[in-house]
Amino acid sequence: VATAAEAKGWPELLPLDTIDRQSPQDFARWGGALGDALGIELELTHQPVQPQTTTLTLVSRRDYGAEVQAPTAILRFAFPRVSLGQRLLGGGFARFQTGDLIGILPEGGTVPRLYSLASGRRDGFIEIVVKKHPGGLCSGQLTALEPGDTVSAFLRPNPGFRPGRSRAPLILIGAGTGIGPLAGFVRGNTRRRPIHLFFGMRHPDSDFFYGEEFPGWQDEGRVSRLVTAVSRGARPHYVQDALRSEATQVAELIRNGARVMVCGGRDMAAGVAEALAEILAPAGLTPAVLKAEGRYVEDVY
Q1: Considering the entire predicted model, what is its pTM?
Q2: pLDDT above 80: residue 82
Q3: What is the DSSP string of 20-54?
Q4: Are 75 and 153 in contact (CB under 8 A)?
Q5: Which domains does the chain have, with CATH numbers?
Q6: Are the beta carbons of 141 and 135 closer than 8 angstroms?
Q7: Where is the FAD-binding FR-type domain (predicted)?
């Protein structure tokens, strides 16, 4: 927008600036600069409206990643008590699906952190995958939880990241904690929709999340194919490399109407989009075209 305005010769009141969404200080600084430009005293104070939260109790945890200095846990919380009003109106945790977001309000913090749900209402529990980040307030608290401990949380629907009811094949692509909602989609695939899952990890001995469940899910027909990429070892292999290795089948699935769902870090998602652009070029397709058709969706962070 700033570039377009400059090209039209519009005068600039303030240089383009950015504000960290978790920094009230940044917001106040920008307000002061705006006031100076306008010639008035302007003091902006951020007063966040806290969402109404529900107490969730941890019932189990599974730990991974210590060997590769990336401690990560699959955290399962008990399904909370839902009031009659919430059941009737669908509020709170009365209705949710895999891929929706759960907001956790950390102790000592005012800004909630959002995590993708690896479970749906029918599973009867609430599950997320959390990696501990150095100095991370919320991730540090979550990965320190023991069964019986509680957190304050709220639900945020994420309707743009759902597999839909179609019988067309699904291509699920994720790395690291991005496997959470993708594993949830597989677990909930009781109709045996064809699912091809590409998962990137550091090492199978340390962070193959849901590795215990996948053999059973394959036997039950909930996932048609699982392709893994290991980034630590003699031959580093990333999820975009796995896609290129399976280029012929991936292109055929997409030509036949497959839906692509990507979850994980922004760099990974960018690499996946680049790989798919190469794979689809001979067919005259691009990720942008698939997005316009609603057949390519991302949940990136």
Answers
A1: 0.84
A2: no
A3: -TT-HHHHHHHHHHHHHHHTS---------PPP-E
A4: no
A5: 1-38 (no CATH), 54-156 (2.40.30.10), 170-300 (3.40.50.80)
A6: no
A7: 51-164
